[in-house]
Design goal:
The complex is a heterodimer.
Chain A: H1 5-14, H2 20-32, H3 43-61, E1 74-76, H4 84-100, E2 126-128, E3 134-136, E4 143-148, E5 151-155, E6 161-165, E7 172-176, E8 183-186, E9 192-195, E10 200-204, E11 212-223, E12 232-236, E13 239-243, E14 247-252, E15 259-265, E16 268-272, E17 278-281, E18 285-290, E19 293-298, H5 301-305, E20 311-317, H6 319-330, E21 333-336, E22 345-350, H7 355-363, E23 369-373, E24 376-380
Parallel strand pairs in A: 11-12, 21-24
Antiparallel strand pairs in A: 1-6, 1-8, 2-3, 2-7, 4-5, 5-6, 7-10, 8-9, 9-11, 10-11, 11-14, 12-13, 13-16, 14-15, 15-18, 16-17, 18-19, 20-22, 23-24
Chain B: H1 9-17, H2 21-43, H3 46-62, H4 73-90, H5 97-108, H6 115-131, H7 135-145, H8 151-158, H9 162-186
Classes of the chains: A alpha+beta, B mainly alpha.
Chain lengths: ~375, ~190
């Protein structure tokens, strides 16, 4: 056989056209052939190559994160955790305050029954792993709190959550705050998210593909880490927000009937799912999505992000809008008697105060009175 | 969510054919090291190995629906690797060392025509790759399965962390599964 024929023989083999004898020749050669004298490679170098291959595959096929990609990120509470003992003291003080300051403007608050509305521990959230397991982050003790296929989640003594291990099967994790809860998360790309009460965020344990996509229910403030190659996209009901790296707040509570996107820094693009409407926001602007249209206006951003700083900040808001915020924070239901004033009011109240203090402050406007029965607050003229 | 690590190669293949990305991921993780070692021995160039392995896995995804439902997934992957090597060689210069090597080999006329014997030898190659496991991984594995020591005891014995022990054992188990697969279907 001539040398020139060897490449042709290989092509024939690959096309499946070899005779049994030709196939035997090539396959036996392959069995015996081994490169001589090539350098022994370190495991690190080999692993590095395999990781590179995986990165390529993950990119091309849109796969979850590689097994060998260490995904380490943190979930940090907004405030230092207040101990149960301190909580008890506050509750006691709250009740004491009630007895010594019988309600004047806050009419007919029944005795007792207000301890549950005294805000003490705000760093409440529920973490749901890809396999469906849930962990109460405020109750979890320090140390290892969960293992999900290859990933160990540890809570440090500072209340920090650390993900360690391989994010391969992470798919989507979910963090949800109850009414009256709030939590801060650092996503794997460095983006910080403050989650307001009664909200949830669905996020991958590692970002792959051509965009960083998360899904939000409720309200959150985002400080998105810059990455021009991979836009950050926030999906809410009927709307998506695309950003490259910026600070903005999204209020997408279902009971608000509107989705408000407020930009503090940088630029974001707001797009509706069911129509071609888009808006490019400048800092200080807010896009309001309602039904099928999108309106952009300039607003005072301080009001929008006051919640993040631990405040209610109302600027010319009607009582219903105010009470929706109060209800989410103090976990109460709100009812309205007829003939409630539609007058708009403003003011700033710390969210660390008890419900009683907040209602008292509101009633100080002389426009409203309140009745508290258990978890139910009735607004009266 | 399914625990993919405990699935057999056949189950993984079946899931992959249906387009399951996690099954694909597990197949990659389970077999990447052996394939890499093997290709490096044949090609002697890590960059080239990377290209071949990458190409092999891209094609595995692209052609997933046509994959045979085999119990011998390592055999399938090694055959695919061999085809990629042949493909690479078919584009080589006639004067290259590979072509010369094949030429010399053919002229010596000592090849095996019996496919079954060749396949057995091929399985032998795969086993050798398995035996070439990192020493520590082997040691941990033997202590666990034959010495019946707990992870904690092994960790103390070898002065490593229990996490390392768990990881080594899970890696060894993966490889053992490959080994059993090979024993079952080649021997």
């Amino acid at each position: 056989m001539q040398k020139e024929e060897v490449p042709n023989l290989l092509k024939k083999y690959l096309a499946g056209n070899c005779s049994e004898q030709e196939r035997g020749m090539l396959e036996t050669w392959y069995l015996k052939y081994e490169e001589a004298g090539f350098p022994e490679l370190s495991q690190e170098k080999k692993d590095g190559q395999l990781e590179e291959i995986w990165a390529f595959l993950a990119d091309k096929i849109d796969l979850p994160a590689a097994e060998d990609t260490e995904a380490v990120y943190h979930i940090t509470p907004l405030w230092p955790k207040i101990t149960a003992a301190a909580a008890m003291v506050l509750i006691t003080l709250g009740i004491g305050f009630y007895f010594y300051n019988s309600p004047d403007k806050v009419s007919s608050v029944p005795n007792g029954k207000i301890s549950h509305t005294t805000q003490t521990s705000k760093n409440k959230a529920m973490l749901t792993l890809a396999d469906g397991r849930t962990i109460a982050l405020d109750e979890a003790s320090n140390g290892e709190i969960a293992k999900q296929a290859g990933v160990t989640i540890t809570k440090t003594k500072d209340g920090l959550l650390v993900y360690e291990g391989r994010a391969k099967e992470s798919a989507f994790n979910n963090i949800a705050t109850p009414k009256g809860g709030q939590y801060q998360i650092s996503l794997p790309d460095g983006t910080k998210v403050w989650l307001n009460a009664a909200s949830s965020l669905n996020y991958p344990a590692a970002f792959t593909g051509d965009k960083r996509a998360v899904r939000l229910l409720g309200e959150a403030y985002f400080e998105v880490a810059k990455n021009k190659e991979m836009p950050f996209v926030v999906y809410t009901k009927g709307q998506e927000i695309e950003v490259l790296g910026t600070h903005f707040n999204v209020n997408a509570y279902e009971d608000e009937g509107q989705t408000k996107t407020t930009l503090l820094e940088g630029s974001v693009k707001v797009k509706l799912a069911k129509s071609a409407a888009t808006a490019l926001l400048k800092p200080g602007q807010q896009a309001v999505f309602e039904y099928d249209h999108l309106d952009v206006s300039a607003i005072d951003v301080a009001e929008v992000v006051a919640w993040k700083e631990g405040c209610f900040l109302f600027q010319d808001e009607d009582i219903r809008s105010i009470m929706r915020k109060v209800a989410r924070w103090y976990d109460v239901d709100v009812a309205y008697e007829p003939h409630i004033s539609s007058k708009k009011i403003g003011g700033r109240i710390s969210r660390n105060k008890s419900l009683k203090v907040v209602l008292k402050t509101l009633s100080g406007t002389d426009k409203f009175n309140f009745k508290v029965e258990g978890r139910r607050v009735t607004v009266m003229p | 969510m399914l625990e993919y690590k405990i699935l057999s190669d056949r189950e993984l293949t079946s899931l992959l054919r249906a387009g399951d990305k996690y099954a694909y991921t597990e197949i990659y993780n389970r077999h990447k090291n052996l394939l890499q070692n093997h290709l490096y021995k044949k090609l002697g160039d890590l960059e080239l190995v990377k290209d071949v392995l990458q190409d092999l896995f891209v094609k595995l995804w692209d052609n997933k629906s046509e994959m045979p439902l085999t119990d011998n997934l390592p055999g399938y992957l090694f055959s695919a690797a061999r085809n990629r090597v042949f493909n690479h060689l078919s584009h080589q210069q006639v004067a290259s060392k590979y072509i010369s090597s094949i030429q010399t080999f053919i002229n010596e006329d000592n090849y095996i025509t019996d496919l079954v014997i060749r396949e057995k030898e091929f399985a032998q190659i795969i086993r050798q790759e398995i035996d070439a496991l990192p020493a520590k991984m082997k040691e941990v594995f033997v202590l666990s399965r034959e010495g019946h020591l707990s992870h904690e005891e092994i960790a103390k014995h070898l002065n490593i962390s229990p996490q390392t022990v768990s990881k080594q054992i899970s890696n060894a188990l993966k490889i053992l599964r490959v080994r059993l697969g090979v024993f079952f279907y080649f021997l």
